Amino acid sequence: MLWQVAVARWEGRHDGAVSAAAHGEGTPDMRTDTDHPADSEHGGLSRRTVLLGLSGGLALAGTGLGPALSASAATLLNGRWCSPARGRLSSAYGWRTLNGVRAWHAGWDVANPVGTAVYAAAAGTVVRRGWNVVGGRTGNGIVVSHGSGVYTYYGHLNAFRVGNGASVSAGQRIADMGATGNVTGPHLHFEVQIGGIGKDVNPRTHLTNRGAVLGGGWPTLDPEARGQRVKAMQFLLRQRGRSITVDGYHGSQSTATLKAWQRAVKLVGDGQAGPKTWPVLDYVLRQGHGGDHVRALQTLLNKHSAGLLVDGDFGGVTNTAVKSFQGLNNLVKDGEAGPITWQAALS
Ligand SMILES: [Zn+2]
């Protein structure tokens, strides 16, 4: 409860006034609304680590509301959240006027062709799946419950990739982007709802505050972050010759190692893996490469349901997985993991 209030304050919401309106979608505009699951090994591990991160967050918020959160807002960048899809931001959250009608837009729209992968933005359970599953939202939709009254909604989907009741991990593919319902073009309508289904907050702000960039971009992981992206960072540091345990936890040792490497390459040594750090830390990889940098890539592809063996061998299987991942995200399917592919895999 405290946590919800704290989050609402952090989002800059006014005590539910906006969410209570919970309007549906308006009339059409351009590219907007008018209104294989992860293999058991990796999915299970991912869920456990993410849940650990969640309990840490709850404990923090419980210690003292505003001050605790504002003083340590950076700890929100805990690796739990990721972008639900790659694409162009085509319509913003908030009031908008379409065809002369002023209406509340309860989410952000991310546009890309039909079939583009849609990922769970955080770990949780699919609680609704089907046609018009939330009042005012049209077409095929999915609602994922993340606990503590936090939900995400994915709308206008073309196909479902998980069943109702399924447990999903952050970054797991759950659906295909589509144009079902009242739309003028294919896109994902994405919402974050806090305090109950339909109680929308600004989903882009919500993601930004948690180190994820809606639609793409480099994520940001702070000290104390956990998960597959942390593992990838640790593998990359190992490839860069640093001695580090790859455990998916960016604790004091991991942070110290990153800081030392950052200073060595003339970056700000803040122990934060963000937009300045990732492009320097990554490698351009293609078939034939082998090592911990390949393990980093394989780990990230698995976060997006690739189901690869993390063996550090960029062979034919990994090559196929990279191309498949690139296709699902509407990137050039060349099998080469350059900055754009890393960015997508990290989001
Ligand atoms: Zn929308």
TrEMBL record:
Coiled coil: none annotated. Pfam families: Peptidase_M23, PG_binding_1. InterPro entries: Cell_wall_metabolism_enzyme, Dup_hybrid_motif, M23ase_b-sheet_dom, Peptidoglycan-bd-like, PGBD-like_sf, PGBDSf. It comes from the Bacteria. Residues 105-203 form the M23ase beta-sheet core domain. Residues 26-43 have a biased composition (Basic and acidic residues). Residues 226-279, 291-344 form the Peptidoglycan binding-like domain. Residues 16-43 are annotated as: Disordered. This is Peptidoglycan DD-metalloendopeptidase family protein. It comes from Ornithinimicrobium faecis.
